[in-house]
């Protein structure tokens, strides 16, 4: 129960920081912010400060910052300089991008904290969790097994076991591990999912870390969001091409994963928050209507054409995008509750 509570707090913190980025930059750019909400729907708990209502709402599907005039269908004083459409274009773009930027900044700060306090993780990897019913679990591999070799090749973070599995194109893989310090060998036959061969294991670094200085911590922390984003985009591309099975999670599934990480310890918990912060920042940058990237796309069009898109058309596009995203979220949440172990 405690791990679930810690997970909810962690996920809520990422949402607060994302919306806080929008809020802070909007205020700095002289925009009127009417509402800062965690969750959607009517106010459960709230208060008003300097013209802004801060609230917690009952539908835990994210959050939002309501800036006067940002909704194209909204009624507002067209002569008011504090409304969103009347601010300079660069201020509007900065406000939109501030949410994802806050998530990337959060990932960097948390990574620096982890590296300075706990040190740099080893490149040696272990099995965090073999997926029940998949080849690795069926062959006898267990959580905590330290990966040593696959088909005679040393495997680690620089030479991942996934590369060896793919190279074998479905042939049985001889996997050597250390279990409680004792060498063991397993023969696992990968299964093909879409065009990818998998054995069904979640992998992480072993619990061995090396102390690093501030310079190394800053360097590693700033490059992490970039390389992680590239990896995520590559995965999305493979999903779009049907090469990888889409396995999406909603708030409930994500909370469960954070809770599992919290049970494993503070390093895994913070590591999960860092990864999710990058995911949240990148996801919101996608050029999808209703997301920050979709709004930035309309601003880019405005910059090129030197005129605003028809407000009614923009509102219709964002509404359609929101409904689509909400539908996907409902489906994956249903699967999180009833379709996952």
Fold and architecture overview:
- With 341 residues, the chain is of the alpha+beta class.
- It has a domain at 123-207: Pdz3 Domain, CATH 2.30.42.
- 51% of the residues lie in helices and 20% in strands.
- The chain is built from nine helices and 14 strands.
- The chain has helices at residues 2-28, 89-118, 135-139, 161-168, 214-240, 251-264, 266-285, 292-305, 311-338, and strands spanning 33-40, 45-49, 52-56, 59-67, 120-121, 125-130, 146-150, 153-154, 173-179, 182-188, 191-193, 196-198, 201-205, 209-210.
- Strands 2-3-1-4 form a four-stranded mixed beta sheet, covered by helices on one side.
- Strand 7 (146-150) and strand 8 form a beta hairpin.
- The longest helix has 30 residues, at 89-118.
- The two termini are 17 Å apart.
